[in-house]
From TrEMBL:
InterPro entries: Fumarase/histidase_N, Fumarate_lyase_CS, Fumarate_lyase_fam, Fumarate_lyase_N, L-Aspartase-like, Pur_lyase, PurB_bact, PurB_C. The keyword Zinc does not apply. SUPFAM superfamilies: L-aspartase-like (SSF48557). This is Adenylosuccinate lyase. Residues 341-461 form the Adenylosuccinate lyase PurB C-terminal domain. Keywords: Lyase, Purine biosynthesis. NCBIfam families: PRK09285.1 (NF006764), purB (TIGR00928).
Amino acid sequence: MTARVSLADVTPSIALGPLDGRYRATVAPLVDHLSEAALNRERVHVEVEWVIHLAQHGVVPGAPTLTAADEAYLRDVVATFGADEIAELGEIERTTVHDVKAVEYFLKRRLAAAPEGSALREVGELVHFACTSEDINNLSYALMVRDAVHEVWLPAAAAVADEVAALAVELKDQPLLALTHGQPATPTTLGKELAVLAHRLRRQLRRIEADEFLGKLNGATGTYGAHVVAVPGADWPGVSKAFVEHLGLTWNPLTTQIESHDWQAELYADVARYNRVLHNLATDVWTYISRGVFTQIPVAGATGSSTMPHKVNPIRFENAEANLEISSALLDTLAATLVTSRLQRDLTDSTTQRNIGPAFGHSLLAIDNVRRGMRALAVDAELLARELDENWEVLGEPVQSAMRAASVAGVTGMENPYERLKELTRGRRLTADDMREFIAGLGLPDDVAARLAELTPASYTGLAASLVHYLQD
């Protein structure tokens, strides 16, 4: 076999996965929050804030007071964390073979390089004071996930729900032949059906917006053991709570070495459920396209098929389906795995949490595809009108319901309404004349007969159009 170039050795490096390759531009905003570099930057941030917190509150006797300039210097280490710092941290970790220890040494270098006379040169041992690695990691992940959700994922997820809602309002009066079990059923409006999906998406978003992000700082087995030995006079639970809340997180008072990750399982279950509702939207819109309800606006220069030039494939919705399934599978795995840690600690969560980025990345990619796909849709109103006019049998429901009401009111000759309509309509296609002739022969009160005679499949949509207004609540 002819030798090939090793793609693993090509420069710049080639991505193994599609999120860092083909789809990089779409998911790039998540890199700031859920990448390995983002994790290390957040670790530096937590370590910096811990030093400042200990010094500000005089927790450790003898620790010098930091000036505003000292605090600004420390926080600038986080603000300027970029390519050079990532490389430096990587070099340190090759020696320590421990990622959090590398962060500690990295920060101590910065303290040693502080300006002459700065108190920062004296606080090196406050870095990682009484901490286990998980004290830093759990807070870092909570901050990363919180910001990824609220700054990147939620705005995109809310935008697609809003766009579906806007289309629902636009199409609230557009009659549509409903299909239940794939068979013609009571007509609705296209807007009302889209409103159902927008309402479902928004309900999940409200759950996600309310999800908590928990954190802890209590030592190697959650007992504050090292803390109380080193500084027995401090209110360590109070210090811990104040620090966690200073970071904008919810304090977890009872943990083992690790924060229990239950909040992550709750969040990922909610995001996965949102994914699945969006998946339902994608499959429904795909079906509407296949049925001709929606047509797709061609993109200039785009190719739908390599051999069939007429095709405009619903690829946005198909891509979304696949990525939502991958995202949900990853989120399900994260939620199931992270709630279990053997006794006081095992490391399954360490490698598992490194897949949070791909889980959200595939969801974000799907959201982008749905938004782009929805913007390229147009309604074929003529087809919808034709479908409705070909299915007069769907009026069997209101006619038999009117017969029941008339029977209750004392009108004679209204016996067995369901059975009579079943005999008339089941397995048959009726015309307008067929239905009106049947109505005329029922002996209904004149006003009821007139109301039914004026009814058409297109006008038999009940309150569908007005129900769309519930989206505003």
